[in-house]
Design goal:
seven-stranded parallel sheet, globular, about 300 residues
Length: about 300
């Protein structure tokens, strides 16, 4: 089909931004939605008419998130509902899925956003010899740190996905939408980079595993004709509880941008903004031709890290 024929085959109204990224009436799940990028995601979806369910271990941040949204919400039809649950256990996942299933007949998008960063031994803070590195990296971490990282950042995504699979499928069969629900798994640029970022092997390996898990899920669902898309988002530095970084408001001048480039290794000279992230999320979840992809949004950090030994 030629480009002209392709254009002629579509209603021009479908190409308006309001149609391209329309999520009004959607039901969305955002795990870890009480803080950070999860809260940003939940707010953006609700502001555009989605019914959003957020979850997390602690009730306080969840209730605060709902209260803040209700206080400042626009006149849209969306809302945010909090359900406390520990997504690192099967029992917690089942409880959360049961709470949603009791209220909804389908979901349009599952965003596996929850995760942890437990820290690591600094590979640069020792004598850079075989003996020095051996002592630092062997004694500086525990097996439990690695196990907890993979349990929270990989295994829990696997079990959460399959717990919600029937509700995802029901978006088309019961909800009457043009496709079933889709899934976004949160990885990181740290899952792609070839450096350990000063020794955080456990976190980076876990985020790489998240990307692999997403590819496998997308493949297996496609093979079975389920129509459930799975994509992986790999953000770079955005201000959040995990990343203490200056906000974009402090990096406006060229001097600040250059300082930021030197310190953080981001060619664009600033951290990510809320709008940057929301635009990316909406593009992924509404694009019905995208599955099995990992999408990087890092201001060019990975490009810089290829040749910067200090990162």
């Amino acid at each position: 089909m030629s480009a002209i024929a392709l254009l002629n085959s579509v209603d021009r109204c479908e190409l308006k931004v309001s149609s391209l990224f329309n999520v009004e009436g959607w039901v969305a799940i955002v795990t870890g939605g009480g803080t950070g990028l999860g809260l940003l995601t939940a707010t953006a979806l609700a502001e555009n008419g989605a019914r959003v369910y957020i979850t997390g271990r602690r009730a306080g941040p969840l209730l605060d998130a709902v209260a803040r949204y209700e206080k400042s919400r626009s006149k849209g039809k969306g809302n945010i509902t909090a359900v406390q649950a520990d997504m690192s256990t099967k029992e917690g996942i089942q409880r959360f899925a049961g709470e949603v299933q009791a209220r909804e007949e389908w979901i349009n998008v599952l965003i596996n956003n929850h995760g942890i960063s437990l820290g690591a031994a600094d590979i640069n803070a020792c004598e850079q010899t075989a003996e020095g590195l051996s002592k630092q990296m062997f004694e500086g971490e525990s097996f439990e740190t690695w196990a907890d990282t993979f349990k929270n950042n990989v295994a829990s995504y696997h079990f959460t996905t399959f717990a919600f699979l029937p509700l995802l499928a029901a978006a088309k069969t019961i909800g009457g939408f043009s496709e079933p629900g889709n899934i976004v798994n949160l990885s990181s640029m740290s899952g792609i980079t070839k450096t350990s970022q000063h020794g955080q092997f456990n976190y980076n390996a876990g985020k790489a595993a998240t990307i692999s898990l997403s590819h496998q899920q997308a493949t297996e669902f496609a093979r079975r004709g389920l129509g459930i898309r799975v994509n992986c988002l790999c953000p770079g530095y955005f201000p959040s509880g995990m990343t203490i970084i200056p906000s974009e408001n402090n990096t406006g001048s060229e001097a600040h941008k250059q300082e930021f480039r030197n310190k953080w290794g981001i060619p664009l000279g600033r951290p990510g903004k809320a709008a940057d992230y929301a635009q990316c999320i909406f593009g992924i979840i509404t694009n019905q031709y995208m599955t099995g992809a990992e999408i990087v949004i890092d201001g060019g950090w990975l490009l810089e890290s290829v040749y910067s030994a200090h990162l």
